[in-house]
Amino acid sequence: MATPDRPGFALPLLLLAGFRTLIDDLHAELARQGHPDLRPAHGFVLQAVGPTGTTASDLGQRLGVSKQAAGKTVDRLVALGYLQRADDPADARRKLVRMTEKGIDGLRRSAAVFDQLRDRWAATLGTDRVAALEDDLRRMAPADVFRLDVPGWFGG
């Protein structure tokens, strides 16, 4: 039950603050490791592109944004060297968006940094408390907890 010292609106704000802290720490470390241009939304895009690539239209659907918005982000990530456009071998009329080695490296490093950040939280809060927090969040969140449409959802 919500109380004056623990109002209902505080829970989503605290969850968002925890998320923001992890993401800010991730990007500070990625910058130190040679990826200063990666931004939080870029991680969702790289995940949505995946190991086999995708089209800009499919990318927009996965992200919950328009094809044009997805295309602008792809343009930026191509310019930064994280993505490339290639002919689709199955359909000459289509272009695929694929990760470059730099994009793959960024995702690999992100995974390793997230492990380090989780370890830091466990060292501060205790391994059992972090595991319990994760278990509780899994219990409360829908099964498709990792949804790539966050950029579109935040954008309205």
Describe this structure in words.
This is DNA-binding transcriptional regulator, MarR family. One of its GO terms (molecular function) is DNA-binding transcription factor activity. One of its GO terms (biological process) is response to stress. With 156 residues, the protein is mainly α. It has one domain (21-155): Arc Repressor Mutant, subunit A. 63% of the residues lie in helices and 10% in strands. The protein is built from seven helices and two strands. The protein has helices at 10-32, 40-49, 56-63, 67-79, 101-125, 127-140, 150-155; strands spanning 83-88, 91-99. A two-stranded antiparallel ribbon has the order 1-2. Strand 1 (83-88) and strand 2 form a beta hairpin. The longest helix is centred in the C-terminal third of the chain and has 25 residues, at 101-125. The radius of gyration is 18 Å and the shape is globular.
Question: What structural keywords apply?
Answer:
156 residues; mainly alpha; Arc Repressor Mutant, subunit A; two-stranded antiparallel sheet; 7 helices; 2 strands
Ordered list of secondary-structure elements with their pairings:
Elements: H1 10-32, H2 40-49, H3 56-63, H4 67-79, E1 83-88, E2 91-99, H5 101-125, H6 127-140, H7 150-155
Antiparallel strand pairs: 1-2
Helix pairs in contact: 1-5, 3-4, 5-6
GO biological process, one term: response to stress
GO molecular function: DNA binding; DNA-binding transcription factor activity
Protein name: DNA-binding transcriptional regulator, MarR family
